């Protein structure tokens, strides 16, 4: 089958959107079950991004953010990273624990575990979606959390880009619960070998 | 009027008096700052990795300590700086996350070590450093007197 570049691009975007939709579906069920209330999610953006674009996506290298990192191993190897603004992280903790933190409170250990657990659930949701579309098996590690400047947090996966490739799968996730809107940026950073393998399995390379 | 010029990730820049150079949100990366005491020419590089050999994606020399630091010195010399008048200051090299994979272990520390080794080979003395830890840094390097200002979130600001 010969496809034009445009057709290729459209097909590729469709596959990524599908990945975002299935992942979000999984995540909504898991999160709603966890908090025992109805939530809504949407995925406004799914795309492949370059390393250079990432600090801009997050609003600048100096912006304080909360980052959650997980290792991925198995048929696809690499990292998963969630990045949230401090206010989104606080809303998420409030939603989960029924607290009323304002944007400036420091997180306690319990609040940090709650955030890491969300990271776990969302990572699982997107990896299951990827697995559904590709048939690959992947295992995620225990999450880790850091609060700091966006540039500093991102230097970690960026260095992995530096040693491997320079592309990540980016999924912007919006979570709505009552009047709250939480934005979490999801990055899947495969090794260069896994990246090729993933695109091929998704039928876009 | 003083201008503060940005240095991006895996990038370098040089300037002269009265300007300053800055790089934002250094994590595991290392900011190497070189000052020429005679001409007040300054240079800054934001390195991501220690060595370019063995790395597939190595077309950008500013990404690595071994290729980037000599290039930075060269650019400073082009502006009229001389190696014998230079000193260096380092910042960054933090460990933002604990990693289980051994090959990525403490990349921050490896970056700092590589930067020091390359500077030593180039005979440029390191007069001050603020490296390691588990937090990010924004740095500003002033041509006026070679001072390096380091800003953090929750760990205060200092000058070295």
TrEMBL record, chain A:
Superkingdom classification of source: Bacteria
Listed CDD domains: CheC_ClassI (cd17909)
Keywords: Chemotaxis, Hydrolase
Matching InterPro entries: CheC, CheC-like_sf, CheZ_family_phosphatases
Domain (CheC-like protein) ranges: 11-47, 110-145
PANTHER family for the chain: PROTEIN PHOSPHATASE CHEZ
Protein known as: Chemotaxis protein CheC
From TrEMBL, chain B:
EC code: 3.5.1.44
Enzyme kind, highest EC tier: hydrolase
Keywords from the UniProt entry: Chemotaxis, Hydrolase
Pfam families attached to this UniProt entry: CheD
Gene3D superfamilies: 3.30.1330.200
Reaction equation(s) it catalyzes: L-glutaminyl-[protein] + H2O = L-glutamyl-[protein] + NH4(+)
Family the UniProt entry places it in: Belongs to the CheD family.
Function field: Probably deamidates glutamine residues to glutamate on methyl-accepting chemotaxis receptors (MCPs), playing an important role in chemotaxis.
Protein name: Probable chemoreceptor glutamine deamidase CheD
Organism from which the protein derives: Caldicellulosiruptor bescii (Anaerocellum thermophilum)
